[in-house]
Amino acid sequence: QVQLVESGGGTVQSGGSLRLSCEASGSLFSLYRAGWYRQAPGKQRELVAAITIGSGLDYADSVKGRFTISRDDAKDMLFLQMTNLKPDDTAVYYCHARRSLHGADYWGQGTQVTVSS
């Protein structure tokens, strides 16, 4: 079982920055995949960024060059540094993890990010 707890959301003006954090209950180092998804009102949940063992980093085209995913295995933490935020980035952001290629998906409770124009 993996438990994920996000923090760091909030309200910022367009062009601002936020850093999201996700604390995992178990060892992040052993996770096959860990990343961030987001869901805006009326839209489907979408991948923002992820780290996959053997595949490296994935970013949504809309956030490339603005967002950076990283992790601290020693502290079992996952981060998402978001810069040059835009109103379209407004969403609930979820931390996600999977232990193996066909393993179960684990989700955090989500943290709200609101970007005002």
Evaluate the radius of gyration. Answer: 13 Å
Please give the number of β-strands.
Answer: 11
- Seen as an oligomer or otherwise, the chain set is single chain
Give the CA-based shape: globular
Low-confidence stretches: none
Descriptive key words:
117 residues, mainly beta, 7-stranded mixed β-sheet, 0% helix
What does this structure look like?
It is a single chain. With 117 residues, the chain is an all-beta fold. It is 0% helix and 53% strand. It has no helices and eleven strands. Strands 2, 4, 5, 6, 9, 10 and 11 form a seven-stranded mixed β-sheet that branches. It has a four-stranded antiparallel β-sheet with strand order 1-3-8-7, with no helix packed on it. The radius of gyration is 13 Å and the shape is globular. The N and C termini lie far apart (40 Å). The model has no long low-confidence stretch (mean pLDDT 94).
Summarize the structure.
The protein has strands at residues 4-7, 10-13, 18-24, 33-39, 46-52, 56-59, 67-72, 77-82, 91-98, 105-107, 111-116. The chain is mostly beta strands.
What's the structural blueprint in terms of helices and strands?
Layout: E1 4-7, E2 10-13, E3 18-24, E4 33-39, E5 46-52, E6 56-59, E7 67-72, E8 77-82, E9 91-98, E10 105-107, E11 111-116
Parallel strand pairs: 2-11
Antiparallel strand pairs: 1-3, 3-8, 4-5, 4-9, 5-6, 7-8, 9-10, 9-11
